[in-house]
Amino acid sequence: MRGVMFLMLRFMVSATILVVVAASGACAQSGDVPSDSAVKELQNPYPYAENTVRAGLKIYGRQCLTCHGKDGKGKTDKTAEMPIKPVDFTKGKFKFGATDGEIFRVIKHGTKGGMLPYAATLKDSQIWHLVNYVRSFGPKKDGMPIVVLEEEPVPENPLESSYE
Length: 164
Known about the structure:
- The chain is mainly α.
- Helices cover about 45% and strands about 0% of the residues.
- It has helices at about 1-30, 35-40, 50-65, 65-70, 100-110, 125-135.
- Helix 3 packs across helix 6 (about 125-135).
């Protein structure tokens, strides 16, 4: 009797492990990262404007501040523990590409061993606003200053946040 129970338990554990491994493979495939050429062609649907930068600031305060810092230089008490240091946004140079699409991909899908993915946390529109906010730290995009558009609603998380 004990032998049968042991075999059943062993079978159940093996089956559970198999299901978990199969599910994790399916999840990895559904979140495939787009190719480099496809990402370079991605266009930010939100113009580099004051209202989108402001929307990006609010999201940055909730999601990015801990690692990238208030000044965008990537030097915080948290980063001292990290094997891969966050990029300094003020330089306008990015390890994984500098187009809006490439920055979008890094925020959405993360990087191996470094940046965490935010695909499950943020909507695409929020990520695009973050791209605009990240651009505001460094040399202005395409040499252009931030334009001030007529105020238009920008979808964002309703929770307010501040640096304090």
